[in-house]
């Protein structure tokens, strides 16, 4: 077996925070939003359906939103090599916490404990009533859409239903964000993977980690606003870069134990 090359920034690392964006899921067949073949690149008007005020005010916007998720690629997707690499890093004994901007739930499908994954922007696998706050499995509502209900209402109170995802114009859950900040500040290494780092406040977790003394490594196809803060910026495909990085971190941890 070939010896694993260990970059200097992998050494003496036991606590790893990983900020993941849409780019980590594209190898699973889940399109990103802003890339060349992104959801909003192909259909710029669809972004309206992801704006909270528009969603709440217009039944037609809600109908378009529900249709966009009816046959969403994430329902058929499986975790890819990058997702599995992070789960393997966790199983190797390092303290791994995933702070994901994704709503697809693929990290959890690797078997990593749900408590180790913070969904900063919510989950497409859950529906919440904006009236009574009742929560339910998303498939129940999407089955109603498939059966012909364009804008299904809450069966308990008649309120507007929405996926439990953060739309434009909504604040992130303060408890989730506070926990993410604590994790970022306590990390020794922050990996930012497949994120444009254009969406705040999630992207600012990178700066918080660096200011607390962590090394920042960015794995992304395109330049980001945080590249200048990074110890290293890696442009190679995520599906090959992340397994190599996690193997190096595991090797470094094993060598120092």
Describe the fold and architecture.
The protein has 257 residues and is an alpha/beta fold. The chain folds into two domains: 1-30 and 78-121 and 171-257, Rossmann fold (3-Layer(aba) Sandwich), CATH 3.40.50; 34-71 and 125-165, SIR2/SIRT2 'Small Domain'. The protein contains eight helices and nine strands. It has helices spanning 39-42, 52-57, 59-70, 81-91, 138-146, 174-186, 204-211, 238-256, and strands at residues 15-20, 95-100, 117-119, 122-129, 135-137, 161-165, 189-193, 215-219, 232-234. Strands 3-2-1-7-8-9 form a six-stranded parallel beta sheet, sandwiched between helices. A three-stranded antiparallel beta sheet has the order 5-4-6. Helix 6 (174-186) runs parallel beside helix 7 (204-211).
CATH architecture of the largest domain: 3-Layer(aba) Sandwich
Number of strands: 9
Question: And the CATH topology of the largest domain?
Answer: Rossmann fold
Radius of gyration of CA atoms, rounded to a whole number = 19 Å
Derived structural class: alpha/beta
Helices and strands in order, then pairings?
Blueprint lengths: L14 E6 L18 H4 L9 H6 L1 H12 L10 H11 L3 E6 L16 E3 L2 E8 L5 E3 H9 L14 E5 L8 H13 L2 E5 L10 H8 L3 E5 L12 E3 L3 H19 L1
Parallel strand pairs: 1-2, 1-7, 2-3, 7-8, 8-9
Antiparallel strand pairs: 4-5, 4-6
Helix pairs in contact: 3-5, 4-8, 6-7
């Amino acid at each position: 077996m070939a010896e694993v090359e260990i970059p200097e920034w992998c050494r003496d690392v036991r606590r790893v925070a990983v900020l993941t964006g849409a780019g980590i899921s594209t190898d699973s067949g889940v399109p990103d939003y802003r890339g060349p073949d992104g959801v909003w690149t192909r259909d710029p008007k669809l972004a309206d359906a992801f704006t909270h005020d528009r969603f709440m005010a217009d039944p037609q916007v809600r109908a378009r939103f529900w249709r966009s998720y009816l046959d969403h690629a994430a329902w058929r997707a499986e975790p890819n090599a990058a997702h599995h690499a992070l789960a393997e890093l966790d199983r190797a004994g390092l303290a791994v916490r995933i702070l994901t901007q994704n709503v697809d739930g693929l990290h959890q499908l690797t078997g990593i404990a749900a408590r180790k994954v913070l969904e900063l922007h919510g989950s497409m696998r859950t529906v919440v009533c904006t009236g009574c706050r009742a929560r339910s499995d998303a498939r129940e509502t999407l089955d109603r859409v498939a059966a012909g209900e364009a804008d299904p209402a809450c069966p308990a109170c008649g309120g507007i239903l929405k996926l439990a995802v953060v739309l434009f114009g909504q604040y992130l859950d303060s408890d989730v964000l506070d926990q993410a900040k604590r994790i970022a500040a306590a990390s020794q290494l922050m990996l930012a993977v497949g994120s444009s780092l254009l969406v705040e406040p999630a992207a600012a977790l990178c700066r918080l980690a660096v200011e607390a003394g962590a090394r920042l490594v960015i794995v992304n196809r395109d330049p980001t606003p945080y590249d200048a803060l990074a110890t290293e910026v890696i442009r190679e495909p995520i599906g090959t870069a992340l397994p190599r990085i996690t193997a190096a971190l595991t090797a470094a941890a094993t060598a120092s134990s």
